[in-house]
What does this fold into?
Amino acid sequence: MVTPDSDRPTVGILHPGQMGSSLAASAQQSGCQVVWASEGRSAATRERAHRLGLLDAGTLTRLCEICDLVVSVCPPHAAREVAIQVAGHGFAGLYLDANAVSPQSAVEVARIVSGAGATAIDGGVVGPPAWHPKTTWLYLSGERAEEVVVCFAGGALETQIIGEEVGAASALKMCYAAWTKGSTALLCAILAAADELGVWPELRGQWERDWPGFAEQATGRAQRVTAKAWRFAGEMDEIAATLEASGAPGGFHAAAADLYCRLAHFKDRPTPPLDEVLAAVREEGGSQG
It folds into this structure.
């Protein structure tokens, strides 16, 4: 059984996937004791946790008992349910919701966990998994956010506090991803239409005249995004809600969510040929699998 170390913070990583594992590593490098709960988790997740040397609390119940900080990194649609589970175990420490959710969703998560006695910290991660310095930023907002900074200060993850109000970090994440992931969805739609209408060679030529190298970048983005499309669909819904709440139209990203649903079946597959990607974009009735 894992025993808390009174001399250093104990950090619980709820989902040591690709991003969660990198956050766990940064916490370890910052001197924290880092734990996870293996109950019900996949063999791939167990392997990642083993490679990192994460301590196994066994169950979520035990993890909530021993941790000073619990970190939630999961697909956006699951953020609320994860918060409910943690609150159900009476967790009363710091709860970092580092998911790609709207400010409204972040406030709802904070309401759930604070009802059980925890202190909610809103987090927004910008960048790839944090294995190298100056590549990935964790923006934080909420009271006691400085305590979260300490838990990651010695690792590759960069941190920045942007206020005391829950929702601010998520708002920044949503606005940033609205362009990076939203523009990729738009490119996919344009490529699919140009291909179907028979004008792709001409469009490629015009792009090359205007922006040398852009056509190759666009097709590469369309192919690479298939690996994560299943999780980007929910993020687009959260962005749409964010924009609508601000008074801006959210329809752009509602359509992007639809497009990513059409690509969701490429999850866990090798990078597909471009023609398969474009055919999937044009096919109605896709699902998030």
Observations:
- The two ends are 36 Å apart (CA to CA).
- Residues 146 and 225 are 34 Å apart (CA to CA).
